[in-house]
């Protein structure tokens, strides 16, 4: 039975990875390519070859990744290589499948900024779904994993950023500065949307409250706000006074309500508000 559920979960993951690749390829073929904008990583390189040599992006993604996958198979985790191969094949196939749809979008029919925004957003959603299921589309992911294995302290984020900057600079040289700037905006939007997909839209706020009227605040949270609240024993290192510190997680809207209520109950209360990207457990929707 456990094997069945594991197999079913793997199939579901692969379906979501393929859907993510389809969405990302729509962003590339329908929006980015129409405005001669670039993407990051192997897809950005593929777009460069399409614009300059008229080589299909799906084919370039495949050719760029084959040698990297061979190295990955020898040097890296076999599971990572298999999932990356599947993700790369899904992306290559998706780029081929969605390519005919680009003919339905008139060249220059929309403002470049529109292409930039929607292209970046769709790529962010697509790649976000892929990464959400521990997938990968190859390219720079393989390079960064190889470097991380050899140099554990290497800053992987700076490498990915550097590769994208090089792609943008090549685009600026070939297609002009305006296209490069639009590409930069598109990548910025892509990263924001990708983070939202990975972290979720139901971000929460953590309030840490130091007060002399903890019982009144606890009653308010439980009875009026209908939220859970935890008390911790805190000690000030200057005075060594011990008091309760209240720990409460709420939505962004409830944060404003709770903060105002606390200050009404105890104007001298000390409140710290912390952003939380993910909360799991009773009373909160899983991300």
Task: Give an overview in words.
It is a single chain. The chain is α+β, with helices and mostly antiparallel strands and 287 residues long. The protein folds into 2 domains: 2-199, no CATH class; 204-276, Alpha-Beta Plaits (2-Layer Sandwich). The protein has 10 helices and 4 strands; from the N terminus they run H-H-H-H-H-H-H-H-E-H-E-E-H-E. The protein has helices at residues 2-32, 41-53, 57-75, 78-98, 112-132, 140-150, 156-175, 177-199, 214-225, 252-265, and strands spanning 204-210, 230-235, 242-250, 270-276. The protein has a 4-stranded antiparallel β-sheet. Strand 2 (230-235) and strand 3 (242-250) form a beta hairpin. The chain is elongated and about 70 Å long.
- Note the gap between the termini: 26 Å
Helix content: 55-70%
Query: How many distinct domains?
Result: 2
User: Reading side by side through the largest sheet, how are the strands ordered?
Assistant: 2-3-1-4
What structural class results from the helix and strand content? alpha+beta
Q: Topology, please?
A:
Elements lengths: L1 H31 L8 H13 L3 H19 L2 H21 L13 H21 L7 H11 L5 H20 L1 H23 L4 E7 L3 H12 L4 E6 L6 E9 L1 H14 L4 E7 L11
Antiparallel strand pairs: 1-3, 1-4, 2-3
Helix pairs in contact: 1-4, 1-5, 2-3, 2-7, 3-4, 5-8, 6-7, 7-8, 9-10
Brief summary of the model shown:
By secondary structure, the chain is of the alpha+beta class.
Structural key phrases:
287 residues, 2 domains, four-stranded antiparallel sheet, 10 helices, 4 strands, Alpha-Beta Plaits
